[in-house]
Amino acid sequence: ENENAAHLVATHEDMMEVIEEGPLIIMKANTDATNECRDSNGSKAKVSVDTRGEKKYNLDNVAKDIILKTLDENMFLKIKTCTIAKEIWDKLILICQGTEAIKENKLIVAIRSSRASR
């Protein structure tokens, strides 16, 4: 996970933001009298799109490509239905680390095992 994260960040400075928050949503200008931007669902836009935004939007595709190239067939089968890099990343973290409850159970087992071996 850390090696993949380092590689992704080295590829582009905004890569981890795309993975952690999801892809930039391209907004279209609202045609009414206000200066707000709206997305395709009519929701208020978070950002307006410029050249940097367009490049950042494409980072999701770049991130997906990098992540998918590092997976073996077994892991790929577990994430093949994911559509964005964030979804893939989150699922891989869950698969590799488990939920908080699983992490806590692993810690309890390790502590008990350590105490039993004393």
What does this structure look like?
Helices cover 62% and strands 3% of the residues. It has helices at residues 2-11, 15-21, 51-69, 73-79, 85-97, 100-116, and strands spanning 28-29, 37-38. The chain has a two-stranded antiparallel sheet with strand order 1-2. The chain is elongated, with a radius of gyration of 20 Å.
Summed up:
By secondary structure, this protein is mainly alpha-helical. The chain contains six helices and two strands. A two-stranded antiparallel ribbon has the order 1-2.
Q: Estimate the helix proportion, in percent.
A: 55-70%
Q: Give the oligomer, counting copies of the same chain as homo and different chains as hetero.
A: single chain
Total of helices:
6
Query: Biggest β-sheet, characterized?
Result: 2 strands, antiparallel
Beta-strand portion reads: under 5%
Strand and helix layout:
Elements: H1 2-11, H2 15-21, E1 28-29, E2 37-38, H3 51-69, H4 73-79, H5 85-97, H6 100-116
Question: What descriptors fit this protein?
Answer:
elongated; 3% strand; 118 residues; 2 strands; two-stranded antiparallel ribbon; single chain; mainly alpha
